[in-house]
Design goal:
mainly alpha; two-stranded antiparallel sheet; globular
């Protein structure tokens, strides 16, 4: 799979900000994209000239960043061919999807839809739709019925919540972006699982926060890189934390 230069530019975000040489900041951002699987294994990156034009930087910067990634084992290069994404210490063989029915494709964080439940939900919503036709359809805080349902859910869980304390968003990512822009200041530290949901990383970077990744063990228990002992030095004092209790696709 070929990844365009503009797609890579969107994924790296504001890579120009921060200390150190430009090529190191770019290689660090690309390496994170590889380790978080946002750049799929086996995919090919754009050429140095194309990516430099999309990023508004020099070809030397991109070339040096690519060579750094090769040294770290995150890219494989061949003469007159695009650089290919790989993992350090591993060269996975090419595999055709769908050749083995018992194979679970983990490259998609999207299980099959629960057909019966989803159909029943759409049918119930369709019955209530006509009574909303006379409205303009733009409720800044969400429809009254939905806000009441959310408040009732919290009340049943022991947290008294009036409906006007609820804000309905377009989804979890919308809510996270609103919280990041509202509660975080530039260069605030945010503690995150590593790996984690890539769009969560994007929400925090767009809020100009500093991400502090913490490795996650197979038991879903976050530990500092290199062992269970806390790192030496001054305390981190993050302004916020982001945890994915069931992996990168189940966020809270």
């Amino acid at each position: 799979m070929k990844i365009t230069s503009h797609a890579v530019a969107r994924m790296v975000g504001a890579w120009q900000e921060g200390p150190g040489p430009a090529h190191r900041r770019l290689s660090d951002r690309l390496r994170l994209l590889v380790l978080d699987w946002r750049l799929p294994l086996g995919s090919t990156l754009p050429g140095e000239r194309d990516l430099a034009a999309a990023l508004g930087t020099g070809r030397t910067t991109v070339g040096t960043a690519y060579r750094t990634l090769v040294e770290h084992g995150c890219l494989a290069t061949r003469e007159r061919a695009r650089a290919t994404v790989r993992l350090p210490g591993d060269t996975p063989p090419e595999r055709r999807a769908g050749t083995d029915p018992s194979t679970i494709d983990l490259s998609f964080a999207a299980p099959p839809a629960p057909a019966e439940i989803l159909h029943a939900a759409f049918a119930a919503a369709l019955e209530h739709l006509p009574r909303h036709f006379e409205r303009h359809g733009y409720d800044r805080n969400g429809t009254t019925e939905l806000r009441e349902a959310v408040a009732d859910w919290y009340r049943r869980r022991g947290l008294p919540t009036p409906p006007d304390h609820s804000l309905i968003t377009n989804g979890a990512q919308h809510a996270l972006a609103l919280l990041a822009r509202t509660l975080l200041s530039p260069r605030d530290k945010v503690l995150i699982d590593h790996p984690t949901h890539p769009h969560a990383i994007r929400a925090f970077t767009e809020a100009r926060a500093r991400l502090l990744p913490v490795a996650v063990t197979p038991s879903d228990r976050a530990v500092p890189p290199g062992g269970a002992a806390p790192p030496a030095g001054p305390p981190l004092r993050p302004a916020a934390g982001w945890a994915s209790p069931f992996g990168p696709t189940a966020d809270r």
